[in-house]
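FW: tagging you since you asked about this chain on Friday. Here's the raw sequence from the shared folder, copied in full. Didn't touch anything.
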Amino acid sequence: MNKTTTTFKEFNENYPCTECNAPCCRYLQIPYKTPTTWMDMDFIGYILNFPKVTVTVSKSGVWGILIQQDCKHLDATTMKCNIHGTSEQPKTCVYFNPYQCNYKLNLNDENPETLYVLDFEKFKYWVQYLKFDKNGLIIDAPDYEKSLEILRDFETGKKIESTSDINKKSSSHNK
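HL: got it, structure written out here
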C-alpha cells in the first residue's frame, strides 16, 4: 500500500538526507534574472556552450543557472561532507533545511517536480517559440505548462505550434 501521510514521529525518524545522493553538494544553483530580451536569451545560449552548465525554470517563472560540479568537500564514495559539523562548513550548508530540499525534489531523477531543465539542445529547440518586438524585447513566450509540452515533443522529435501560430489560424478561420 502506498502511504501518502505520515505521523510526526515517523517524519522525525525519516531524516531526508538518509540515502540521498547529495544533489545539494553536486550541483551549484545560481539565481538568474528572468530574461526579457533577445540579448538575455543570447547570453543563456552562450553559457549553455560550457560543459556541465544547464538552465532551470521553475513553475513560478524563476530562472537559474545550474552547474553540475561536485563540492570539493564531498566524499564521492559515501556521499557525505568531509567538513560537516566543523567550523569550516559554510553557513549556507549549516542552515540548509533538508525538509524543504528543492535539490532532492528536482535533481534526483529525470522528472523534476517543480522545474524544467534546459541544456544547449533543448534551449535551441525551446527558444524557437519566443517572439520578439523590433527592439528585441520578448513579447510572447510559452508558459510553464506549454514549455513542458514543447520539451516532451523535443524528446519525441515532434514539432508543435507556437501559441501565436495557433491564434493566427483561429483568427483566419473566423474571417
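FW: The chain has one domain: 18-173.
HL: agreed, and The CA atoms of residues 59 and 114 lie 6 Å apart.
FW: great, closing this out.
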